[in-house]
Write a structure and sequence with these properties.
It contains 13 helices and 16 strands. It is an alpha/beta fold and about 425 residues long. The chain folds into two domains: about 120 residues, Urease, subunit C, domain 1 (Roll); about 290 residues, Metal-dependent hydrolases (TIM Barrel, Alpha-Beta Barrel), CATH 3.20.20. Strands 1, 2, 3, 4, 5, 13, 14, 15 and 16 form a nine-stranded mixed beta sheet that branches. It is globular. It binds zinc ion (ZN). The site of zinc ion has 4 residues, from loops.
């Protein structure tokens, strides 16, 4: 009965969208049986920094079996994508898939449930993977730990997730819930709110127990919260060091949210793997980062997209204070050769607009190749994942295609024509054709 009623609706939807999004109406399409060859006019070798013309990637069991093999195995299914460039799936090292920013999002802490956040992650994860980002490092609590597991099971279509679970922060700081009366959403170490060495150790251990694959810490104040000066250091260097050491005992790295100069330096000296935002870098911070090999995850495109007028007064003032510094800091870091991995802070940036970050890096001083490396080989290195970031035999079959040549025009990364995640073909827009080999 139900099926009869729904059939015409599905038929109509498919007529509109089937060619645009294969698999869009279903959950995860199963990996194709047997080997698949993906052919395109070009492939970008991100390590060598050159375009390979007339390229074929052979995919088997979710992995890349060969690039430009001399012959294809019996029964290979060939997909000819036509006049596009193949790239490794892109990586965004700073997302919040369960979140979004609006005039009322500061109320989320007291108005929405874990289920709401998880379902938002399903929707936003789809936008992210359709934008060519096949891996994210997500700072989003329990919701994106569970979401990431669902992606790996093939239950939902989305990017691989490296989750932090709850970010660590001081009582009343950026990673606490602020702006409400006493008694409203009082958090503890289980939610990442922890003070003093003993409590931060407990907080790290609790995040690891429940699925964290990276530890996020709020080293300084932030913009989208109700607490004080945006540049203020919040964790002491002693606390930061304890967090880094405890994370390392579990084989995990630490990502430090840090805007203010002193907090950035304390986090770098404490040994964090990456500075997130890094809005107020001075020359000493830049040389400390270079000396320690600390990554910068700039999250700069959001400054072009955020509507500060929507924010409550406290947040709006902080945003207006920090934004003019932040783009200068990224320019300074690029010029000095600080290691950079792409991150967008998606949630503050609308989900699916992640490639805007690549475009901004080029306008702030990177070559297109350097920008693409920040979202592929470099981000994979920061995340400690040696199974992705390049198109090479043995790597995960996370493959995307863009229209045009991204080394000539970085903006083509906004036009994603094809996406494959671990051998699952999740998006294909127009152009080529699928045919039996
Ligand atoms: Zn963030």
């Amino acid at each position: 009965m139900k099926r009869t009623l729904l059939a015409p609706v599905f038929a109509l939807v498919f007529a509109v969208s089937a060619s645009a999004q294969m698999g869009g109406m279903r959950a995860a399409p199963a990996p194709m049986e047997g080997p698949v060859a993906v052919h395109a006019a070009r492939l970008l070798d991100v390590q060598a920094g050159r375009i390979v013309e007339d390229a074929t990637i052979l995919v088997q069991d979710g992995r890349i079996a060969a690039v430009n093999p001399s012959e294809l195995p019996e029964g290979t299914h060939t997909m000819d994508l036509g006049d596009v460039t193949l790239l490794p799936g892109l990586i965004d090292a700073h997302t919040h898939l369960g979140g979004s920013t609006s005039a009322t999002s500061f109320l989320n802490a007291v108005t929405i449930t874990l289920a709401d956040v998880t379902l938002a992650a399903v929707k936003n994860g789809r936008l992210t993977v359709d934008a060519g980002f096949t891996t994210v490092r997500d700072f989003g609590g329990q919701a994106t730990v569970s979401y990431g597991r669902a992606v790996e099971r093939g239950d939902v279509v989305g990017p691989h997730v490296v989750p932090s679970r709850s970010p660590l922060g001081i009582t009343g700081g950026h990673c606490d819930v602020t702006g409400f009366a006493p008694g409203v959403r009082e958090l503890d170490y289980r939610d990442g709110v922890a003070d003093g060495v003993e409590d931060v150790l407990r907080a790290v251990r609790y995040q690891v127990k429940h699925g964290a694959q990276v530890i996020k810490v709020c080293a300084t104040a932030g913009v989208l919260s109700m607490e004080g000066p945006v540049g203020a250091q919040q964790y002491s260097e002693e606390e930061l060091r304890a967090i880094v050491e405890e994370a390392a005992r579990h084989g995990l790295r630490v990502a430090a949210h840090a805007h203010g100069t002193e907090g950035i330096k304390a986090a770098v000296r404490a040994g964090v793997a990456s500075i997130e935002h890094g809005s107020m870098l001075d020359d000493e911070a830049v040389s400390l980062m270079k000396a320690h090999g600390t990554w910068l995850v700039p999250t700069t495109h959001l400054t072009q997209r955020i509507d500060v007028g929507l924010l409550p007064e406290v947040m709006r003032r902080k945003a207006e204070e920090i934004i003019p510094y932040s783009r200068d800091s990224v320019r300074r870091a690029i010029a000095a050769g600080v290691k950079i991995a792409l991150g967008t802070d998606a949630a503050v940036l609308p989900h699916g607009e992640n490639a805007g970050e690549l475009v901004d890096y080029v306008s702030l001083g990177m070559t297109p190749l350097e920008a693409i490396r920040s979202a592929t080989v470099n981000a994979a290195e920061l995340l400690g994942l040696d199974d992705r970031g390049v198109l090479a035999p043995g790597k995960l079959a996370d493959v995307i295609a863009v229209a045009g040549n991204p080394l000539e025009d970085i903006t083509v990364t906004r036009d994603i024509r094809f996406v494959m995640v671990a051998g699952r073909h999740v998006k294909h827009v127009g152009g080529g054709m699928a045919m039996p080999h």
